[in-house]
Amino acid sequence: MEKPVAVQYCATFLKPEMLHIYRQITALRGWQPVVLCQKREESGRFPFDLDVLIILPKPATHGLRRIWVKQICRRPVMIYRSEAKRIAQEIKRVNGAVLHIYFGNIAVQLLPLLREAPVPVVVSFHGADAGVDMNRRAYRNAAQEMFGLARLVLARSQALAERLAEMGCPREKIRIHRTGIPLLRFRFWARLAPEDGAWRFFQACRLIPKKGLHNALRAFARFTQAYPQSTFTIAGEGPLLAELTALALELGIRERVRFTGFLAHGPLLEELSMAHVFLHPSETGSDGNQEGVPNSMLEAMSTGLPVVATRHGGIPEAVDDGVSGFLVAEHDPEALAAAMLKIASAPARYPAMGAAAAKAVAERFEQGKQIEVLERCYTEAAQT
Predict the structure, then answer these.
(1) Is pLDDT at 168 greater than 60 in this prediction?
(2) Which distant-in-sequence residues (6+ apart) come within 8 Å of 342 by Cβ?
(3) What are the residues whose beta carbons fall under 8 Å from the beta carbon of 296, sequence distance 6 or more?
C-alpha cells in the first residue's frame, strides 16, 4: 500500500539554521514527503531526493513586489493568483493528501493558495514567525484569515500556542507539536563539576539579538570574578560577531571567550562533551520576535548539560527550574550570573542536574514520538 503524500512547503529548502526542519521531513515514516520550495540551498548539508523536490520559479517582478507591498504599502507580501494556481497544480500532480506550510509568516504570503487549496492545509509556527509585525492591522487581518482557512495550526510550545490564540487562532485548531531530537545522535556524558574551578560554558545559536548574547557575556564576566579560570565558547554565525567580540574585550574577558563560527555535527558534539553548562538567555526582540524552544538547547540537554536560561517563550517547558538548570528573568545579567554561581557552588548536586536535563528531553522531545504526533495531525487534517 502506497503512503499518502504530505506536501511540504518551505520557501527556502533549507537555510543553515533549519536542521530541525530537515530532520523532521526526512524522519516521516507513514507519510511520503514531497517538498515545494522557491529556492534550494545547502544541498551538501541537506541532501534530498530530487524526484520529490520541486523548485517553483519566482516571478520576474518578485523583488519589486516585495519593496512596493512591504515597505511602501506596509502590507504582507502575497503570491500572485497565477502562482497559487501553479502550486495547486503541483499538489494535484503529486497526489498530495495534505499541505504542510513552514512557517506562519509564509502561510500569510500563501493566502491566495489557501483560499483555493486543493487539499487540507496544516501550518506550523516555530516562534519567530508569531508576533512579528502584528502591531500592523493589515498583518493581523491577514493572519486571522490564514487561521480561518488552515485546517490545523501546529505550535512548538504551549507558550506559543497561547500567543497564537491571542492572535486570533481558534483554540480547537491548535495542536502542540514539539521539536524532535534524534537522541541516538547525541550521546549522554555523565559529567562531574571541575575540581579546579575551570567551568566551561557553552552557547550555540545564531548571533542575533534575541539570543541574549550580550547579557551572556556580561554574566560570564561577573562569574569569572569568582572563577577566573573559566571559559565561554560561543558557536554560531551572525551579524553580531564584531559587536560581541568588542564587548568581550571591553569586559576584560576576551581571552576567556572563544567564537568558533558554525559547527558541523562532529565538532559540535566534541564541544558539548567538554562543556559543563549550557547558556541560553533568550529575550524578546523589539519587533515581538520570540523563541519557541531552542533546538540547540535541547541537543545540549540530551547530552547531559544543565542549562542556565531565561523564562522566555517555551524554554520553561523544557528546563525545570532548580532541577535541570536555572531560569531567570530576561535582560538581567546579574540574575544570570547568580544562577551560574549557584551551579558552581553546589558541585555535589551538579551531576543530577545533567541527568535530569537528558531525561526531560527523552520524555518530552524525542524525535520518534514527535513524528508520531505530526503524522497523527496529518491524518486528522486529511480526514476532517
Answers:
(1) yes
(2) 326
(3) 203, 204, 205, 280
Grid coordinates in use for 16? Answer: 543553515
Q: What is the pLDDT of residue 375?
A: 98
Domain boundaries in the chain?
5-180+366-383, 183-364
pLDDT in tens, 79-100: 999 999 999 999 999 999 999 9
Q: What is the pLDDT of residue 131?
A: 63
Alpha-carbon dihedral 366, 372, 378, 381, rounded to 10 degrees: -100
Element of type H or E holding 12: strand 12-13
pLDDT on residue 352 = 97
Q: Where are the beta strands (DSSP E) in 147-299?
A: 152-155, 174-176, 200-204, 231-235, 257-261, 277-280
Left, alpha or beta for 325 (phi > 0: left; psi -120 to 50: alpha)?
left
Q: Are 301 and 224 in contact (CB under 8 A)?
A: no
Angle, in degrees to the nearest 10, between helices 19-26 and 367-383: 70
Dump pLDDT digits (tens) for 255-266: 999 999 999 999
Residue 159 in contact with residue 131, Cβ under 8 Å? no
Q: Which distant-in-sequence residues (6+ apart) come within 8 Å of 297 by Cβ?
A: 278, 280, 307, 309, 315, 318, 319
State the Cα angle at 71 between 87 and 116, rounded to 5°: 25
* Higher-pLDDT residue of 41, 129: 41
CATH homologous superfamily, domain 5-180+366-383: Glycogen Phosphorylase B; (3.40.50.2000)
pTM of the entire predicted model: 0.91
Cβ contacts of residue 23 below 8 Å, gap of 6+? 180, 182, 367
Instruction: Please tell me the distance from the alpha carbon of residue 186 to that of residue 189, in angstroms, as a whole number.
Output: 9
DSSP SS3 for 139:
helix
Residue 330, pLDDT score: 97
Name 259's bridge partners: 234
List, in order, residues 6 or more apart from 346 with CB less than 8 Å away: none
> 5-180+366-383 with 183-364: one CATH topology?
yes
CATH topology of domain 183-364: Rossmann fold (3.40.50)
